[in-house]
Amino acid sequence: MVRWRTVSEPPRRRTNRARPDSPAEAVAWLLEPAGDHPRIVDIGAGTGKLTRVVTERPGGVLGLIWNIRDESEPWVGRLGTIMKGSHAQQLLAEGGPEVAAPFGELEERTWHWERPMTRAALTAMVHSRSYVITAVAGERARIDDEIAALFDEVGAVGDATVSLPYVTHAFRALNP
């Protein structure tokens, strides 16, 4: 049985390591309108100060991207129920992001792909989520017990890998 434990690694590093990279095709699509010399600003949960770099110059491209677990796969849906959904999932379910001037209408594309993961990687992913990080000890124990049983069922045992399906949602808007 997996139990929550305190680790010395900073939470941001743990979170970044647990999250998947975006498919190269999605990033290329986002940058396509920018031409040969795109200026890239990577803003996580930014303050808005760097937005000026994108909005001041006509021809700029705003790219938004989310990698969401594909919960149409039954075991992944159960995983989402156990660990709760993300704000990104909620945003996309409610119609997706909205952008304001000077950007035009959002274009959207999706990519389906899979990420091979071990039990340890799956557990690290679950433990990196803010809901789990901030949960009281009893709730974390419930989550650990339920994911342990689920991972046993799907064959994520020891060093064996399972494919975790994702859908990447990419949006872009141009500053005319």
What are the salient characteristics of this protein?
20% strand; 176 residues; 3 strands; alpha+beta; elongated; 8 helices
SSE inventory with pairings:
Layout: H1 11-18, H2 24-31, H3 51-55, E1 61-69, H4 74-83, H5 87-93, E2 107-118, H6 119-127, H7 130-133, H8 137-154, E3 161-174
Antiparallel strand pairs: 1-3, 2-3
Helix pairs in contact: 1-6, 4-8
Would you summarize the structure shown here?
The protein is α+β, with helices and mostly antiparallel strands. Helix content is 39%, strand content 20%.
Task: Report on this structure.
- With 176 residues, the protein is α+β, with helices and mostly antiparallel strands.
- The chain has one domain (11-174).
- It is 39% helix and 20% strand.
- It is built from 8 helices and 3 strands.
- It has helices at residues 11-18, 24-31, 51-55, 74-83, 87-93, 119-127, 130-133, 137-154, and strands at 61-69, 107-118, 161-174.
- It has a 3-stranded antiparallel sheet with strand order 1-3-2.
- Helix 1 packs across helix 6 and helix 4 runs antiparallel to helix 8 (137-154).
- The longest helix is centred in the C-terminal third of the chain and has 18 residues, at 137-154.
- The radius of gyration is 18 Å and the shape is elongated.
- The termini are far apart.
